Structure formats: structure tokens, C-alpha cells
Backbone:
């Protein structure tokens, strides 16, 4: 079991946040693998699932097909910090909430209805909440990936 745990990437819930950011950034920046796959690789970073992957990439305006080594360092760091923030919100609320700056009524609606909590996840074919372009659904590593081809060029 220790060997398995040792292979896991940093986890904001158990690892030092600064050290985790450095490990995550160094690993992503040396890989030719698309960032959309790296975020799902538990040896790169622990715990990011399908919902958070789609939402984090949208929030950072990163194309999921961009090789990790081609994602600017500051953007990789932003992804880590966003994961830390979103995970804390998830632990606090018990919900995967990825929308920011909601007024109190929108917050209540989002807490009551999953469809109001996300920018792109589960929104295939619907207009992007930012630009109006249809959200794309594709398969990446046998998992559903939602993203905006305009906002995430």
C-alpha cells in the first residue's frame, strides 16, 4: 500500500500546498501529454475527476489538447491554485461548485440544482456561458470531456 501511495501526485488535502504546487508544476511542464489527460492522471495530481478537470481547464481558458509542456508555467500554477480553492469549496459545501461571484439568489439556485453549478460540465451543445459558442463533448481517455472551443483555444 505504501508503494501505491508513493506513486500518487500531490493532494491539497494532505500535502504541503507550496510543495504540492512545485511538484505538480514540474511534472506537467515536462510532459508532452495533453493537459486534459494529465489532470486525470493520479500520478500527476491526486483527486481531480471529470467534473473538476473540465471546469478547471475552462476557468483557466486552456485547450484540453495542449501538451503539458506547452502550458505556460504561470497557467499551470493557476491550475493548481484553482484546484486547491475548488476542493476547499467542495469540502465546505459538499458540492462541486465551480462558478464564481454568484449573487445570493444564484448561489441558492446552484446549491439546489447541479446544472447551475458549472461553466461547461454536462452542457454539451448548450451555449457557453461566456461567449455563446456551443459546448463540445468529446471522449478523452474513455471519459467525457466538455469544453468551449472558442474560450479555450
Residues:
Amino acid at each position: 500500500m505504501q508503494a501505491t501511495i508513493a506513486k500518487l501526485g500531490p493532494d491539497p488535502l494532505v500535502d504541503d500546498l507550496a510543495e504540492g504546487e512545485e511538484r505538480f508544476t514540474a511534472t506537467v511542464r515536462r510532459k508532452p501529454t495533453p493537459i486534459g489527460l494529465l489532470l486525470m492522471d493520479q500520478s500527476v495530481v491526486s483527486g481531480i475527476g471529470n467534473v473538476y478537470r473540465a471546469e478547471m481547464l475552462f476557468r483557466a481558458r486552456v485547450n484540453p489538447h495542449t501538451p503539458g509542456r506547452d502550458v505556460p508555467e504561470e497557467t499551470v500554477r493557476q491550475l493548481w491554485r484553482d484546484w486547491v480553492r475548488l476542493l476547499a469549496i467542495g469540502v465546505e459545501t459538499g458540492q462541486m461548485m465551480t462558478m464564481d461571484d454568484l449573487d445570493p439568489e444564484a448561489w441558492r439556485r446552484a446549491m439546489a440544482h447541479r446544472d447551475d453549478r458549472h461553466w461547461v460540465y454536462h452542457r454539451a451543445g448548450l451555449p457557453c456561458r461566456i461567449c455563446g459558442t456551443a459546448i463540445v463533448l468529446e471522449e478523452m481517455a474513455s471519459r467525457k470531456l466538455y469544453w468551449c472551443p472558442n474560450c479555450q483555444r
Summary: The chain has a mean pLDDT of 94. Helices lie at 2-6, 17-29, 35-38, 50-60, 73-93, 104-112. The chain has one domain: 2-119.
